Amino acid sequence: MQNKEGFTLVELLAVIVVLAIIVTIAVPSTIGISKHLKNKMFCSKIDFIENAAKLYGENKRDSVQTSETIKVIDLVNNNYLKKDNNSAPYIKDPRDKNKNLDDLSLTIYKKYNRFYVNFEENVNNICNRSKFNISPEEKPENNNTPIDVNKIVFDSSFGFIVNENYIYTNTFNDSSLILSKLNYAEGSLSIENNILNIKSDSGNTKSLKIVSLTGASNKFFVGPNDIRIASGTSIEEFKNGITCTNCQIEIKNYSNNTIENSGNFASNYYYKARILNNDANGNLIIEKNIIVF
Q1: Of 2, 37, 190, 284, which shows the fewest CB atoms inside 10 Å?
Q2: Are 57 and 78 in contact (CB under 8 A)?
Q3: For the chain, how many structural domains are there in total?
Q4: What distance in Å separates the CA atoms of residue 173 and residue 278, rounded to the nearest whole number?
């Protein structure tokens, strides 16, 4: 008869130990990756909440003196933020399906007629956000510090996007209209040959190239803080309806970390429009949040 030998007790224990080591290594790693992705989605949602809060401040410019503390639910109730659910709680927390952000507090500050948002400290820590500091007594000084383009104030009903080198606008061909909608409290503005010239009271100067960025469809609007697009609008329709002089538009879906070239915008995803230089390098100029409504 043929002898059949099984595993010895020592061999079985060795296998169990090896499996335990594998589980010990693999499980925390998987949990860590999942937590990182959830925190990334949470921070993307915080970006949307911040833009909604800035728009809230812009529209209440006359009533907001130095600061105002509100909750996320206030933005929902005043139609500045789209609901995740049709009934309360309205705004989901991507980190935990049993939690929500309705009662999350935030403070809107007004400084030099621009609006900034501070969140609770735990949000700042998770999303690596710097807390905005404001001193009501602080006054702009006439010195030789570089011109800060963020101190250019514009009419919130017009689509202006400003960065260090460019100003994008829906009113590209009308210099008088552009100047009537802009204000620089620390100096003066002028336009010549599609260049916005900034001169501070202390004599410093800076020039921004004016670039046309005009939505040709009533399904979307290029605003000062974000781009608003109707749900179901196709990505091709949006890109074809944008006039972007010497630049190109790229749509990035931050929910799955992909570049979208086709399909429709959906309200359950987080998008950003990336404006790139129209050259061989295609360097990123600026990113704008897209709010799908």
Answers
A1: 2
A2: no
A3: 2
A4: 21
Task: Determine the structural domain holding residue 47 and report its residue range.
Answer: 38-127
Shared domain for 200 and 288, answered yes or no, is: yes
Cβ neighbours for 62, distance < 8 A, ≥ 6 positions apart: none
Residue 48 burial (CB count, 10 A)? 18
Cross-strand pairs, 221: 228
Contacts of 251 (CB under 8 A, 6+ apart): 235, 238, 239, 259, 260, 261, 271, 272, 273, 274, 290
DSSP letters, 217-247, are: STTEEE-SS-EEE-TT-BHHHHHHTEEETTE
**Is 69 part of a structural domain of the chain?**
yes
pTM above 0.70, yes or no: no
Q: Using one digit for the tens of pLDDT, what is the confidence trace for 72-110?
A: 999 999 888 888 888 888 899 988 888 899 999 998 887
Phi, psi of 285 (to 5 degrees): -95, -50
